[in-house]
Amino acid sequence: MTLEILTPDKKVFEGEASSVTLPGTMGSFEILNHHAPIVSTLQDGPLTVRGSGSGKEEVFFIKGGVVECLNNVVTVLAEGIEVS
After folding, report:
1. To the nearest 10°, the Cα dihedral for 56, 61, 64, 67?
2. Domain with 11 in it: what CATH number?
3. Total count of domains within the chain
4. Quick check: 68 and 74 in contact, CB under 8 A?
5. Is residue 80 part of a domain?
6. Could you list the residue range(s) of the whole structural domain that residue 47 is in?
7. Cα–Cα nearest to 2, from 13, 12, 16
8. Residues 29-55: pLDDT tens digits?
9. Closest CA relative to residue 1, chosen from 58, 49, 76, 73
10. Is pLDDT at 83 greater than 70 in this prediction?
């Protein structure tokens, strides 16, 4: 799936991922390849990206926001972000 992580300032990440774990306001959840359409609010916390094929993990600390998954494209709109 294609993942984009955006803040008001810049595009932080764009690429292929096999899964994304997100800090939802009702608890942490994971989006996998070909996930059903979803829109959810996010709270402050770690966002973990697992690379497609490589298995490499990248962790970002987001400052709230929203996520949308539609047609195998995941878009995260974060209020702020720190790379850890």
Report:
1. -10
2. 2.60.15.10
3. 1
4. yes
5. no
6. 2-74
7. 16
8. 999 999 999 999 999 999 999 987 767
9. 73
10. no
| Total residues belonging to the chain | 84
Contacts of 63 (CB under 8 A, 6+ apart): 44, 78, 79, 80, 81
* Lookup: tokens for 58: 């990248």
- Burial of residue 56 (CB within 10 Å: 0-12, 13-18, 19+) is exposed
> Which amino acid, residue 66?
V
Rounded to whole angstroms, how far apart are CA atoms 66 and 58? 19
pTM: 0.92
Q: What are 73's two structure tokens?
A: 């494209």
